[in-house]
Specification:
Elements (H helix, E strand, L loop, with lengths): L5 E7 L4 H10 L9 E5 L7 H4 L7 E5 L5 H11 L4 E5 L4 E2 L3 H11 L4 E9 L10 H7 L10 E5 H7 L11 H13 L2 E10 L9 H4 L3 H12 L3 H5 L6 H20 L2 H23 L6 H11 L2 H15 L12 E4 L24 H10 L3 E7 L1 H4 L5 H15 L4 E5 L15 H10 L6 E5 L2 H10 L2 E4 L7 H6 L7 H9 L4
Parallel strand pairs: 1-2, 1-4, 2-3, 6-8, 9-10, 9-12, 10-11, 12-13
Antiparallel strand pairs: 4-7, 5-8, 6-7
Helix pairs in contact: 9-14, 11-12, 11-14, 12-13, 15-21
């Protein structure tokens, strides 16, 4: 049986529309070409796996803890093991032939293509003009790289570190990833598959809340330069006018408070004129019924101030922002002294004793989809003190206590055999990366002595030292990255410090 072509990743906050999407996937003309990973981004709530277990689909549910759409998508794709990862929003509905078209889209592209974007339709009312919110949603039809329906090669996501989790809202993280992918990994093409993106019901304040995205624009500017909008085909917006209207309002209020009528009148007039122009620009193309006019007038009075506030906040917060690093795709760990307490030449599984919180630290990595493996020098085999079977028995016990590992590598050679696998040589690190298809530069080796760090560096990976009382002081001094405990090391890795 052939390997699945792509995994389907669906971040969700538990909306009822999720079931409609999954039912559309199960009722298509062809089965989806891989497993479906639903990422529950709620901080708590009922188990979605139980709620959805009646669906005839290869479904896995993981939790992301409420970290936002970028983090949820990252956790989703890191749990995927397929060549491609296809993202869908939880409020879209796929066409009946979507899975068939997706397979054709991904199978047909050359290696120079790193991504394939689906096509989006937004149903609008036929009996009236669309509202402001409906027109905003309809912008998805022509937007570039939106993950409402977007597929990327997994290797490309690994290479750039996935979505930038500093973007707390949808849309800008899509443009950021698209710019990074097209700049370093290959082109993104339009596929032939279609989804329908309905207009979600919203309250009257939605147009004010979305002004928070102005802060994200300044992160985009810090990362991609002032011309990022042109390269991402993003509309310019009205920030300059919003700032002018807010400044006029500030002048008017200051004049009134200080007893200067002319500035007060001039500021108020400027604010009123700017607000009226904004309101009409939003009212004119719409249905112009009483409720829409009321909504546009009231929100237009607030939007300029909200947009300006979030712009100032974003400019300050994201000043000097550096490119996104993300978490490693693979974390390799030394066995003795790092994962379990070191018992020299141990061949007895009963003597295996994990270091404090080792299982919890590993499970945190597994929970966000980071692969974990072991690379260990076992020179006792070469010197006749151990057998392969004894080493394997100890490894099995380690896995029983600490959970599954994606790759195991150990060097059986004596110290003087001159092999290329014994650390500080890079052989085991390179072999583990090759087995899992992970670039060494997206790999971290955690160990307790200098040879662990040296092996990582020789392989093109990153080394992280967690010293024990047996670690030499000069090894600690020479290491670029040192953590006090394995828990601290995992904290650093998940925070992108590696």
């Amino acid at each position: 049986m052939s390997e699945p072509l792509t995994s389907i990743v669906v971040p969700t906050v538990g909306r009822p529309s999720l079931r409609a999407l999954l039912e559309a996937l199960t009722s298509g003309t062809r089965p989806v070409p891989g497993p479906v990973v639903v990422v529950d981004d709620r901080r708590d709530g009922p188990d979605l796996a139980t709620e959805l277990d009646d669906l005839a689909i290869d479904l896995r549910v993981v939790r992301s803890g409420g970290g936002g759409p970028a983090r949820a998508r990252n956790i989703g794709w890191r749990h995927a093991r397929t060549p491609w990862v296809s993202f869908l929003d939880d409020d879209v509905v796929t066409d009946p032939d979507w899975a068939e078209r997706l397979s054709e889209d991904l199978s047909a592209v050359p290696s120079s293509v790193a991504g394939s974007q689906g096509r989006v339709r937004v149903p609008l009312p036929l009996d009236r003009r669309p509202t402001d919110w409906e027109r905003t949603t309809a912008g998805l039809v022509t937007a570039l790289w939106i993950t409402a329906d977007m597929s990327y090669r997994r290797a490309a996501l690994v290479a750039v570190g996935g979505f930038d989790e500093r973007f707390p809202r949808a849309f800008r993280e899509d443009a950021d990833l698209g710019l990074r992918i097209t700049g370093t990994q290959g082109e993104i093409v339009r596929g032939s598959r279609w989804i329908t993106h309905p207009v979600r019901p919203v309250d009257d304040r939605v147009s004010v809340r979305v002004q928070a995205g102005n802060a994200d624009d300044f992160l985009m500017r810090a990362l991609h330069g002032r011309d990022w909008r042109a390269r991402a085909s993003a509309p310019r917006g009205r920030r300059g006018r919003h700032v002018a209207i807010t400044a006029a309002a500030a002048v008017g209020v200051a004049g009134a408070l200080t007893g200067h009528p002319r500035p007060a009148v001039a500021g108020a007039a400027g604010w009123l004129a700017g607000t009226a122009e904004l309101a009409w620009a939003r009212i004119a193309p719409g249905p112009r019924d009483a409720s829409e006019v009321r909504r546009m007038v009231l929100t237009s009075a607030v939007i300029p101030v909200a947009a300006t506030y979030h712009s100032v906040r974003g400019a300050w917060r994201h000043r000097g922002a550096r490119p996104w690093h993300g978490v490693p795709d693979l974390v390799l760990l030394d066995r003795d002294g790092t994962l379990v307490h070191d018992v020299p030449y141990n061949g007895d599984p009963a003597k295996v004793s994990p270091v404090d919180d080792a299982r919890q630290a590993l499970d945190r990595l597994r929970g966000v989809g980071v692969r974990v493996g072991v690379v260990s020098n076992q020179s006792g085999i070469g010197s006749g003190l151990l057998t392969h079977d004894q080493v394997q028995a100890v490894n099995t016990r380690v896995e029983e206590l600490l959970g599954p590992f994606d790759v195991w590598r150990y060097c059986p050679h004596d110290r003087d055999e001159g092999c290329d696998c014994r650390k500080p040589a890079p052989g085991m690190v390179k072999a583990a990366c090759d087995e899992l298809g992970v670039p060494p530069e997206r790999t971290v080796l955690v160990g307790d002595i200098g040879s662990d760090v040296a092996a990582a560096e020789a392989a093109g990976a990153h080394g992280l030292l967690v010293p024990t009382p047996h670690t030499r002081a000069e090894e600690v001094t020479a290491a670029d990255h040192v953590a006090t405990t394995l828990t601290d090391a995992v904290d650093d890795l998940l925070a992108g410090r590696w």
